[in-house]
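Good morning,

Attaching, inline, the backbone tokens for the sequence recovery test we're adding to the shared suite. The designed sequence is right after.
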């Protein structure tokens, strides 16, 4: 026991010494906390504000933590006592120091702000705790950094990006010039950057199992302000019709927030995504197989799927395009209306559906299915319908929002914490597993994250807590037997539960669909590091021009996976182009890499950059897309693409034509056209 006793004494002395030292230091004007190579967090003890600098440049200043507790708004400026302590940090993000500011006051609960700083990271992480011993805390608002003043660039040079909460209702990202708007509120993460220099500031939440978060940037000419907080709910963005749920307890924590300044904002966004995946580890089983490629029935066949046409599609993939594979695998995924093959509905005979799955496997293909586990599409038929898998009715399971229910996209949400919902998940998933499906596309997941006035599980009080319950149960039910593909879903919170996520809302074939999808890649490509893969939805070739076909195909290739959608049970121009393009070895090499391309420009509003780039091994790839109705010439400086000036060959991956280039790429595209190039040293 003696060694442990002396170790305890040593640790206690160390903590007391540090606390005493820093408590004394708080009488001074400011205290500095270092991070990375040249980062400094400065705490102004008199004003109780936070400033951050990088290599001597002030990034922001004057930020304070603030909370709302039991209806009372409290700022750190309301506290009479402050103590700063520190301890050594060594976790999955690296080695460093954890600094803790503890605020106490007889009239307020204790407020603690932690700063996690790392020696080799360009960012730090901050989190706020609220503690009370004599009264339970109730809050739906915590801001670790409120009303920070941006200083790294002039307001007229800055872009601020609206990042959506989800990919529903054909929502778009929007990069706005800050000096032309009053404010911008972005879900989960905020971005401010100079598009010319690419210098940028990123702040975003790293945890999504309790809170929905947001970042607001405000034009206060001649300066810009930002506020980051947990407790965000807005009907047009998060789809919620009521306020964010109240979090209660003697101790309540905000999510951890990532804070960083980068010479290239794109590097910062990728760091943010990678850090999310480390801090909030995937709950879903590890994906150790190749990049998914395949077909989904919603592209053309939609509600008309049946055993005959879907097995003919399987035949096409098996016989006509045998080289369209990554790792010898291709998925044949049935979307909604697979119950056309089930006699008697979900409680009926699944034998024909199993026959389809067996048929796919006999051809060397992987069968996939679809489901929206947290929705009731038949709600207009009344509350007394019995839900599959239990004796509960749908009316008992509906998600309550006061005197009404959560309805969106034509479907009513069902409570993810209700035993009827969970038993229904078990029932349907067990049926699909018994059929032998190897992939499932799950959809309308945002319904599971809706705020409610009363969940069945009374320990659950927020939409994100409910989402965690429902999604973890779904993953457990799947038991590692299927690739999990999320369609409409929250952007950040879903990364714990899915291998693949669609980056935008539905897209099919036109140049407008391509541009819409790539808007989400333009400003959300970094999610390629939050998930195993992101996806551009089903690629359809039918009924549009060859240029639009190329653009749509390229949009998928540069997003990460490649899912097609034509009716390959019949011959047409789509089958001709599939045979030619889907077996292109250079395209499949890019797809096998499975990482989204980066945008070259970030000042396109709701529209989309025309150029994306990616380095794979020693090779550079450039995608150029003309969304317009007239031909266009492009002059692309290599340095803007991230490539060292010099002499190269430019290879068109569809025509195999090579062109010599020096320092600059000059290409011409027809209207509604696109090409994908490989840059080769010479």
């Amino acid at each position: 026991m003696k060694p442990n006793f002396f170790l305890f004494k040593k640790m206690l002395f160390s903590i007391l010494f540090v606390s005493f030292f820093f408590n004394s230091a708080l009488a001074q004007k400011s205290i500095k906390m270092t991070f990375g190579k040249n980062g400094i967090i400065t705490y102004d003890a008199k004003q109780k504000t936070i400033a951050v600098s990088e290599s001597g440049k002030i990034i922001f200043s004057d930020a304070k933590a603030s909370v709302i507790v039991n209806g009372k708004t409290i700022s750190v400026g309301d506290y009479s006592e402050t103590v700063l302590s520190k301890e050594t940090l060594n976790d999955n993000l690296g080695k460093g120091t954890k600094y803790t500011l503890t605020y106490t006051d007889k009239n307020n609960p204790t407020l603690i702000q932690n700063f996690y700083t790392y020696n080799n990271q360009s960012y730090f992480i901050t989190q706020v705790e609220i503690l009370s011993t004599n009264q339970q805390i109730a809050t739906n608002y915590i801001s670790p950094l409120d009303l920070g003043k941006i200083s790294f660039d002039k307001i007229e040079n800055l872009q601020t990006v609206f990042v959506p909460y989800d990919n529903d209702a054909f929502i778009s990202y929007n990069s706005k010039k800050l000096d032309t708007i009053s404010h911008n509120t972005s879900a989960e993460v905020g971005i401010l950057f100079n598009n010319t220099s690419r210098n940028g500031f990123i702040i975003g939440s790293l945890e999504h199992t309790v809170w929905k978060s947001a970042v607001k940037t405000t034009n206060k000419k001649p300066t810009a302000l930002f506020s980051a907080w947990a407790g965000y709910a807005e009907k047009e963005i998060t789809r919620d019709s009521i306020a964010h749920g109240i979090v209660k307890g003697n101790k309540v924590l905000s999510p951890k927030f990532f804070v960083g300044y980068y010479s290239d904002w794109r590097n910062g966004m990728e760091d943010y995504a990678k850090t999310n995946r480390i801090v909030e580890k995937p709950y879903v089983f590890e994906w150790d197989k190749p990049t998914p490629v395949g077909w989904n029935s919603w592209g053309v066949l939609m509600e008309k799927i049946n055993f005959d046409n879907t097995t003919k599609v399987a035949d096409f993939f098996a016989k006509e395009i045998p080289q369209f594979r990554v790792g010898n695998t291709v998925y044949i995924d049935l979307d909604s209306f697979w119950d056309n093959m089930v006699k008697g509905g979900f409680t009926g005979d699944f034998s024909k559906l199993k026959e389809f799955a067996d048929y796919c496997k006999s051809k060397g293909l992987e069968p996939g299915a679809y489901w929206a586990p947290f929705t009731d599409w038949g709600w207009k038929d009344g509350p007394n319908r019995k839900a599959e898998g239990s004796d509960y009715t749908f009316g008992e399971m509906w998600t309550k929002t006061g005197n009404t229910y959560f309805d969106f996209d034509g479907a009513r949400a069902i409570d993810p914490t209700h035993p009827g919902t969970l038993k229904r998940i078990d029932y349907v998933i067990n049926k699909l597993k018994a059929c032998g499906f190897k992939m499932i596309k799950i959809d309308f997941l945002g319904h599971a994250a809706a705020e409610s006035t009363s969940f069945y599980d009374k320990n659950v009080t927020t939409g994100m807590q409910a989402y965690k319950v429902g999604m973890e149960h779904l993953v457990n039910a799947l038991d590692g037997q299927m690739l999990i593909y999320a369609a409409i879903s929250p952007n950040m919170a879903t990364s714990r539960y899915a291998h693949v996520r669609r980056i935008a809302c539905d897209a099919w074939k036109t140049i407008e669909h391509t541009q819409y999808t790539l808007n989400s890649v333009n400003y959300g490509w970094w999610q390629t590091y939050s998930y195993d893969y992101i996806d551009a939805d089903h690629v359809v070739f039918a009924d549009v021009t060859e240029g639009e076909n190329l653009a749509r195909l390229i949009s998928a290739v540069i997003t990460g996976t490649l899912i097609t959608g034509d009716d390959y049970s019949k011959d047409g121009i789509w089958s001709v182009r599939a045979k030619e393009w889907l077996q292109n070895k250079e395209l499949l090499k890019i797809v096998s890499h499975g990482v989204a391309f980066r945008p070259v420009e970030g000042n396109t509003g709701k529209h989309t950059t025309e150029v994306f780039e990616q380095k794979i091994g020693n090779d550079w790839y450039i995608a150029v897309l003309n969304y317009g109705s007239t031909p266009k010439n492009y002059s692309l400086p290599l340095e803007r693409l991230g490539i060292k000036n010099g002499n190269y060959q430019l290879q068109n991956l569809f025509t195999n034509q090579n062109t010599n280039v020096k320092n600059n790429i000059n290409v011409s595209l027809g209207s509604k056209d696109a090409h994908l190039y490989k840059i080769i040293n010479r």
